[in-house]
Amino acid sequence: MADYVYRTVMHDIKQNILNNQYKGMRLPDERSLAEHYQVSRSSMKRALELLAQQGIVFKKRGSGTFINPLYLRKQAMFRYDGSNLGITDSFKVPGKKQQIKLLDFHVIKATKEIAEDLFLNENDFVYEFKRLRLLDEQPFLIETGYLPIKIVPELKLETLQKSLFNYLEDEQGKTVTKSFLNITVEPSNEEDQQKLNLKSTEPVGVMEGIFFLDDGTPFEVSNMRVHYHYMNFNTFVNLGK
Questions:
Q1: pLDDT in tens, 41-93
Q2: Which helix (H) or strand (E) covers residue 197, if one does?
Q3: Would you give the DSSP letter of residue 26?
Q4: Start-end of H helices in the chain
Q5: Per DSSP, what are the bridge partners of residue 57?
Q6: Can you say how many angstroms the Cα of residue 147 is from the centroid of all Cα atoms in its chain?
Q7: Angstrom distance (rounded) from CA 152 to CA 71
């Protein structure tokens, strides 16, 4: 449990920032925060480092830790934070509840391409699933994913109706911490138009990626087709040496 303390603290501070809980756009000092959350200084330092890496806060030497005003003004729909890259935790819209509807789920023999992406043998089997994600009953994303059976040998239907990455972390103590994503936009197809309520003239965002466990093992190959209204993505680049 101790390994997850800093992530819990980080998420709580991030939520407090979004709720304007800190006066003067400044966080309390590290010692005060550690005492408030009753965690070690090292856990608190790690949480603040992650927030800084994401561009949410920045440190001014001798002055303290401040909230990045651009983060509050330019919040993206997708906010991958390096500790949990799942859509459930990375996609947030204030005041709206996210739901997952399972559309399809079965076991298939890995194709050559999937086997290469997941570092499997061609004879290995994978789960193939398709899910529809909704915000307050409004569909916004169609997700098709492939998981190696050897990583999650007893995947159940009810698990697929919740966050896979949270399940992996809570039940197996494994964390998805890295991803390679390709983000494009293309004309919507018939399925996009039907499931995402798009017109034939409207585009769809496409996010294709491979997600990796913290030990470097490929965990999932995913194709996500996103309603263009929700294709708002930003990232933070650190140019330091």
A1: 999 999 998 888 777 888 877 788 988 876 776 554 444 444 444 555 555 55
A2: none
A3: B
A4: 5-18, 30-37, 41-53, 69-73, 87-90, 112-117, 157-160, 164-172, 190-195
A5: 67
A6: 16
A7: 36
